Amino acid sequence: MSIPVFRSYIKRKDMDTVLSCLITDSVGPGEYLERFQKGAREFFGYEFGFALRSPYRALLSAFDALGLAAGDCVALSALSPSYYSAALAERGLLALYADVEQAGGIVSKSAFQAATDASEAKPKAFLWGGGSGVLPDPEYFASLEMPVIEDFSRSLGGLREGAGAHSLGALSILGLEHGSMVTAGGGALLYAHGKREASVLRNFAEALHPVLRMTDFNAALGLAQLRDLESVMEKRREIRRLYGQALAGNRHKAFVQTGEAEAGCWSLPVVVESSAKDAMAYARKKDVETELAFADSAVVTGQVPEGSCPNARSLGMRTLVFPLHQRIGANGAQKIARVLATLP
Q1: CA 161 to CA 175: how far, in whole Å?
Q2: 68 neighbors 124 (Cβ within 8 angstroms)
Q3: What is the pLDDT of residues 36-68, one digit of tens each?
Q4: pLDDT tens-place string over residues 164-211
Q5: Is pTM beyond 0.90 here?
Q6: DSSP 180-209
Q7: Which residues make Cβ contacts (< 8 Å) with residue 37, sequence separation at least 6?
Q8: Pick the CATH number of 12-227 from 3.30.70.360, 3.40.640.10, 3.40.50.2300, 2.40.10.120
Q9: How far is CA 135 from CA 234, 238, 322, in A?
Q10: Within 13 A of 290's CA, how many CA atoms are on the CB side?
């Protein structure tokens, strides 16, 4: 039986919480949603936040909360998910795509500066999506004279110089879709760190139509999974370290997290130096499923102007994600490690 790349992990006690919600005969936004929002706020140390029905809606809400208007420019990585581009277009915002560094798969200071220097429209916000799991230097964000929206859905569990992946933006988004480390069967959390941003977000939330908010049914599942998140992250870190040992000395490399840091543990992206198609076929023969890490990114789907962002374009075509979830088990982790060590 093949090991899938992503597999939502729902325990019996998670279902018990959902069933308790169902017998209340109320699955719209209510008590369980309030408990989930409060639990997430306390876990991550946010000032204020709320849950919506999709990451897309959370992104639109973040734009609105920051007061971005049609014609404003937002900077983002060329490896960002393509729905970022759709959300920007829906609000009439201009996208300024920046290239990434080869080793980390993230926008560097020099790449960001090069993108802004070459653009007539200067960005009023930076939308950060850590698809590689690598975190930037916290001072990098602090030096930007603009608000940062941090989507840490794919960098959750990452640490750098004492700062967690959830603590780098003025506003933070955590997707709760299938394959996420915390799944609610859909939806996303949108939170603010500082008091000023929290005040704006609170006023925005009060006017939000209930149909856009997460339901109690989804929140009950998210609440149950939030209780085990610390142990889930630690288990995934252990598996990721095993994979790192398997890749040691191999010509194929995982993204490099520099400094006193640890990359996020949503998955394991590996940059292959051979044919991505051949590597995927080899892993499949060993009953290990893989996917292109950035198949749905802006640069791969044609949102980025041709000829720009060459590093992102290269990584988009040859970066694979390998399974990294707690349903793998010890035997499965060893099997994947052997595949990584012998990858052609």
Answers
A1: 24
A2: yes
A3: 999 999 999 999 999 999 999 999 999 999 999
A4: 788 888 999 999 998 888 888 899 999 998 899 999 999 988 888 989
A5: yes
A6: SSS--SS-EEEEE-SHHHHHHHHHHHHTS-
A7: 49, 50, 51, 189, 219
A8: 3.40.640.10
A9: 17, 18, 19
A10: 29
